[in-house]
Amino acid sequence: MQHEEVVQITPLVKRITAGNSSVFTGPGTNTYIVGKEEDLTVVDPGPALSDHIEAIVSCSSNLSRIVVTHTHPDHSPGVSLLQNKVDIPAYGLITETTKNQDTSFKPEKMLTHGEVIEAKDHKLEVIHTPGHASNHLCFLLKEEKLLFTGDHIMNGSTVVISPPDGNMQDYLDSLNKLKEYDLENIAPGHGELLPNPHSVAEWIIKHRLEREEKVIEAIKEVTKGNPDTLVEQVYSDVDAALFPIAKWSLEAHLIKLQNEKRVVKEGNQFIWKDS
Question: Where is the Metallo-beta-lactamase domain (predicted)?
């Protein structure tokens, strides 16, 4: 994917990928411009990179609004830079936590689940999808049955679930929620378009539950443990260089099991609870 290049991916949608590729962001954060010529919507202005914001502004003089999937540092900091150049409102949600959040994001409008944002030639339905982040939203472009998923679903990797704002049970519930919608393609926050959205969601759910089984096997074997002591066994199929990141999702799995009363926590140790 070429950074800062405007790519027409559907009749109504253009994509611009920011130059912030990394282990977290893959090829970079995708910004989407929705609409043909007038009354356009910007989905996720991305990081605060001047070249990326210039590419968004140069794409059209008819930008009308910004919508934000969530407030992680690679998705929303570009809002203020873009608003410095174009006087348009931003819509989204904020969180109560500040860890790994863009606290500068102050939306002119707080969105609600089921709300529909109407523009001249397109409508975006708001779908609240907590899990990766408590304030995570997806946006369904109804005219093309295209779902902008931010970090709810990425192309190329599974997403990190990092407590306290990330919640594994919420994430699984939000994936199941997508089955309620008529979808044809996913426009992820990172990577190329994904077809067969329902099959993609089912695969992710299956993968997460298989990982949870490895967590259960590991903690049963040693009776008690924590992300530091369990990560090597639970993520034996993953490059050890990624263990520091994997430990966040491992903690989310352990908290889910704790909430289900399958483990108890004493100090920093999670202990398997015999039935």
Answer: 28-190
